[in-house]
Amino acid sequence: MTSSRDMILPRTGIGVDVHAFAPDDDPQPLWLGGLFWEGEQGLSGHSDGDCVAHAAADALFSACGVGDLGTHFGTDRPEYAGASGVTLLSEAARIVRAAGFEIGNVAVQFVANRPKFGPRREESQQVLSEAAGAPVSVTATTSDGLGFTGRGEGISAVATALVYPVSAHEVAPAEPGPAKGAPHA
């Protein structure tokens, strides 16, 4: 009989990321869901502004209790200036695995009026899944004209992640991460 002490229990995490569209006088390319979107107004940010990839990475960190985006990729880290969201997600997955966890899956939903995501969903999921080394699903919705996403001022994304310790005895209970509000990518 397996005792609860010997059970390997999954852990879940939540990640949120928001980026404003870049101003017209400082245009940026749009990177979203690991993909470049030709002809679309890009997002502002320390890195590429890919809030889908960033939310996925933050959810992984949350599930493992190893900090957040600001902890690992914050604006105080010049080596991540302009970094690809796919690179950040890949590095987040490496950090999570180094902390003794394996990734079950990540699910992301972003809120935006554009770009039209459906035709490229599979392509995005493939790129993000490869970066995470685990299944990543992405869905899109609008806010029916409400709030900053409805006014077309930016994009927000929310992600959940499921991870599990590699062994019930290898991972100690996680310490709380740093206070929220720390600068992040």
> Which range does the strand content fall in?
25-35%
What is the first-to-last residue Cα distance? 46 Å
Largest sheet: 4 strands, mixed
Total DSSP helices? 5
Q: Can you describe this structure?
A:
By secondary structure, the protein is an alpha+beta fold. Helix content is 26%, strand content 27%. It is built from five helices and six strands; from the N terminus they run E-E-E-H-H-H-E-H-E-H-E. It has helices at residues 51-64, 69-73, 85-98, 121-132, 147-150, and strands spanning 11-20, 29-32, 35-41, 101-111, 136-141, 154-165. Strands 1-6-4-5 form a four-stranded mixed β-sheet. It has a two-stranded antiparallel ribbon with strand order 2-3. Strand 2 (29-32) and strand 3 (35-41) form a beta hairpin. Helix 3 runs parallel beside helix 4 (121-132). It is globular, with a radius of gyration of 17 Å. It starts with 10 loop residues before the first strand and ends in a 20-residue tail after the last strand.
Blueprint of the fold:
Layout: E1 11-20, E2 29-32, E3 35-41, H1 51-64, H2 69-73, H3 85-98, E4 101-111, H4 121-132, E5 136-141, H5 147-150, E6 154-165
Helix pairs in contact: 1-3, 3-4
Quick structural gist:
The protein is an alpha+beta fold and 185 residues long.
Notable characteristics:
single chain, 185 residues, alpha+beta, 4-stranded mixed beta sheet, two-stranded antiparallel ribbon, 5 helices, 6 strands
